[in-house]
Each structure stands twice: as structure tokens, then as C-alpha cells.
Design brief:
The structure is a single chain. By secondary structure, the chain is mainly beta. It has 7 helices and 18 strands. Strands 10, 11, 12, 13, 14, 15, 16, 17 and 18 form a 9-stranded antiparallel beta sheet that branches. The chain has a 5-stranded mixed beta sheet with strand order 1-9-8-5-4. The protein has a 4-stranded antiparallel beta sheet with strand order 2-3-7-6. A hairpin with a 6-residue loop joins strand 11 and strand 12. Helix 2 packs antiparallel against helix 3.
Length: 365
């Protein structure tokens, strides 16, 4: 997948007619592929370009204490948290806030929720202007020339810049992400955001968690930028929130096995193992495979289906990486639910052009 063409990038990064779920999946599968654990990297803005959902609600619709929670963000994609997962959400989070440039930080950041299990982490951060009625808070990828409808303000043909000027507001781009000085520092993450009011923005930060990530101390690096900062290429203004993630989840480890060798027709690839870890939050599938001609066979990926002709399971996110021994792992995160005893693993082209093959697999403990 590393030799993607221009059409691929247009689909991933551009404002295309593909569904939000497809764009999110392509973004995850592309940005998180070939990750080296010794070479950690972040891709906040890139993830936002494909995955962010921005909806501005009418002013005053929420009380001051209301915010968009993890479940609210999931529901935007037609996904739900199980009752058991909802019980694992932390809302009373003891955190240390630090403004590195306090006198220049007109926005305060508060961690409202966190959810951590064996395979993923979700965090809700509220960005709120310290002085009301003065600022327009927008996401990290928003620009003045973008239509104000991107903020969820319908039937308005103004740009974000015109909207802010007419209301006498100063535009501030806000962002938040894991700082490398924290114990928990994932290889990559995605961010979504919702505008609650002109000067209140809720951010949902999501990342995968690997089994070897035992340290759950998080430092979030919050940044703000204004048009004049971008114009002069100065560094953004920074603050931090530090806190501990809590993993109260349980897990069940299993495998899916096929009766015959899983050689993918038309390619040099062969699936060697399928593992699954089930928690209250999700079902995490790892498809291990060899692919000697990977550079030529661009775009190979996988999905799980109940049967040959059924739809894919309720997909959340995923990535593909090359392991140190030269083999590959495709990780697929699915919504939690009962795992079928038998199902189908389908190999396909991530650009949805080809289905290479299907394999009937059975659950084994």
C-alpha cells in the first residue's frame, strides 16, 4: 500500500463523494500501515482530514456542563457502545493542567471522559474560551476560506472568515494529541470534533492500544493557532493535561482457523494466523500474513463477514503494518458483540476494485 497513486490521495484527503466510513477506513489503513514501533509517529491533521465530523449546534442548546461524550461521537457513525462498555467510561478524571504560556492561552482544555480497554483508547477533551463572546473555535484543519457550513451552520453561504468577521470573533484553531513525554504514546491516532458553541469545541481522540503498552500515564499536548500565528510561521501556543488511564476491561483471547491453507489467489500472499481479542468495548482481529511481492501487489487488506454474501462486521478502524521478520499484520477493530462460531475472512483491494478471495474460518480457543 505504500506506493499509492494520486487518485488514492484524492480519495483519502480530498472532499470526495465516498462515505464518511469509507474515508475513515482508508485514512486509518493508509496512515497506520508499515508502522515501526521504534519509530513512533503522529498524524493528527491527516487523520482529521478524512475522519473529522464537525457539527455546530444552535447557541445555548447545551447547559454549561454538557458536552459530547464518547458514545455521542460513536453514534455519528451508526455505532454504539455496549452497556458494559459504558460502565467503563471514566468521567471524574483527576488531571494536572499546565499552561506553558499562561498569559497567551485564551482557551482552557479539560479532559471530560476516557475509555481504555485492551485494544483501544478514547478521550474526550473540551476546549473552551476563557472569555465568552470573543472567539470562534474551529478544528485544526479548518481555514478561513472554508464554508461556514463545514461548522454545521446550514443555509449560510459565508466563509468561516466572513462569519467570524460579521460576529466580531477571532478565529482560533485548536488541537490536542498525545505527547511523547507521556508513558502512553501510541504510534498514531485520530481526532474528531464537534462545535457546541462558537467558543466551545469538543474533541474526541482515539488510538489503538497494544499489549506491550503497560504505562497508562497520558500527557495531552493542547495547541492553539490563530491566522496571524500561521502567517508568521510562529510555533503554536501550548498547554498540557496529564492524567492516568484506567483499564477495567476484561478480555477473551481466541483464534479463527480454516481447514485449508489460506493462499490468496492472484497474489503471493498467504494468511498464516487470525487472532481475536474480545472485550466489552470491541472485537480486535489480527490477520497475520506473508506477502513476498507486497510492493507490486499494492492495496491488499481484509475484512470479516458472517457469510459469503453478507455485509462486513461493524467496522471501527484498523491499520496494516510490516513486522520485523518481514511478514505483515492487518489489525481490524470491530464493534463489540457476540462472535460467530463460523464466519468468512475476505481479502480485497483497499480501493474496492477487486475481491481476491474468501475463506471460511471457525472459532477456536
Amino acid at each position: 500500500m505504500k506506493n499509492a497513486n494520486k487518485d488514492y490521495y484524492k480519495r483519502v484527503y480530498g472532499k470526495v463523494n465516498a462515505s464518511d466510513e469509507l474515508k475513515e477506513r482508508l485514512m486509518d489503513m493508509k496512515n497506520m500501515e508499515n508502522r515501526n514501533r521504534k519509530n513512533k509517529r503522529m498524524a493528527w491533521k491527516a487523520a482529521v482530514a478524512a475522519a473529522a465530523v464537525v457539527v455546530a449546534l444552535p447557541t445555548g442548546i447545551f447547559a454549561a456542563t454538557k458536552y459530547w461524550g464518547i458514545g455521542d461521537f460513536m453514534s455519528e457513525y451508526g455505532k454504539t457502545l455496549s452497556p458494559e462498555a459504558n460502565e467503563l467510561i471514566e468521567t471524574d478524571i483527576e488531571q494536572v493542567k499546565k499552561d506553558e504560556e499562561a498569559e497567551q492561552m485564551p482557551v482552557g482544555f479539560t479532559v471530560r471522559e476516557s475509555l481504555c480497554d485492551r485494544g483501544s483508547v478514547s478521550i474526550i477533551v473540551e476546549a473552551r474560551a476563557k472569555e465568552r463572546g470573543k472567539y470562534l473555535l474551529v478544528g485544526p484543519d479548518s481555514e478561513e476560506i472554508d464554508p461556514v457550513s463545514d461548522l454545521g451552520i446550514k443555509k449560510d453561504k459565508r466563509t468561516i472568515g466572513q462569519y467570524a468577521k460579521d460576529k466580531g470573533l477571532e478565529i482560533i484553531n485548536v488541537n490536542s494529541g498525545f505527547d511523547h513525554q507521556g508513558g502512553f504514546f501510541p504510534d498514531s491516532a485520530s481526532i474528531e470534533y464537534k462545535q457546541v458553541d462558537d467558543d466551545v469545541l469538543n474533541l474526541c481522540i482515539k488510538a489503538q492500544r497494544e499489549k506491550d503498552q503497560k504505562d497508562l500515564h497520558v500527557i495531552l499536548k493542547n495547541t492553539i493557532q490563530t491566522p496571524w500565528i500561521r502567517a508568521t510561521e510562529d510555533d503554536p501556543i501550548v498547554s498540557t493535561n496529564s492524567f492516568e488511564l484506567t483499564d477495567k476491561s476484561s478480555s477473551d483471547l481466541m483464534e479463527y482457523k480454516a481447514k485449508k491453507a489460506m493462499k490468496i489467489k492472484g497474489t503471493s500472499a498467504k494468511v498464516t494466523k487470525i487472532t481475536v481479542e474480545k472485550t466489552e468495548v470491541g472485537n480486535y482481529i489480527n490477520v497475520y500474513y506473508t506477502n513476498p511481492d507486497a510492493d507490486k501487489e499494492d492495496g491488499l487488506t481484509f475484512r470479516m463477514k458472517n457469510s459469503k454474501d453478507s455485509e462486513e462486521w461493524n467496522f471501527k478502524e484498523g491499520f496494516t503494518e510490516k513486522l520485523e521478520d518481514g511478514t505483515y499484520r492487518c489489525r481490524l477493530d470491530y464493534e463489540s458483540g457476540k462472535l460467530p462460531k463460523t464466519c468468512v475472512l475476505e481479502a480485497f483491494d483497499c480501493m474496492e476494485k477487486n475481491v481476491f478471495g474468501q475463506f471460511k474460518v471457525s472459532l477456536s480457543r
